[in-house]
Amino acid sequence: MAKKATGSTADKKTADKKAGKTNAKSDDAADKQGKGKGGALKAATAVNVRHILCEKQSKALEALQKIQEGQRFDKVAQEYSEDKAKAGGSLGWQVRGSMVGAFQDAAFALQPSTVDKPILSPLVKTQFGYHIIMVEGRR
């Protein structure tokens, strides 16, 4: 059976998008941002991660609110985090298997961002407490 011709450029782009086809320029730009085709994150073996750890959920929510109000992640981490990593919450480069399950899943799902405009995880509960996580890089 023959394919129905539409003739519209917009229809062609929509069909290409559904078929997973994109132009090379958008793929290159997405790759530079740590994303693969379709906006999904490329697989990474390590992430440069920061976190804020609080034993109590109420304290973690307070820290999260400060960040959402525009305060820098590293400054909020120094004030609120109960972790030994007081260097603005930086844990450095972490590979898969070096972090606890829920923390690792959240970290590898995040897009890279900066401390002044962080992309955050929702609160992540582990045996250590409540974490607010951001990722500065992926490789």
TrEMBL record:
Residues in PpiC domain copies: 44-137
Keyword field contains Isomerase: yes
UniProt keyword annotation of Translocase present: no
Residues of the signal peptide: none
One of the GO BP terms on file: rRNA processing
The protein's name in its UniProt record: Peptidyl-prolyl cis-trans isomerase
Pfam families assigned: Rotamase_3
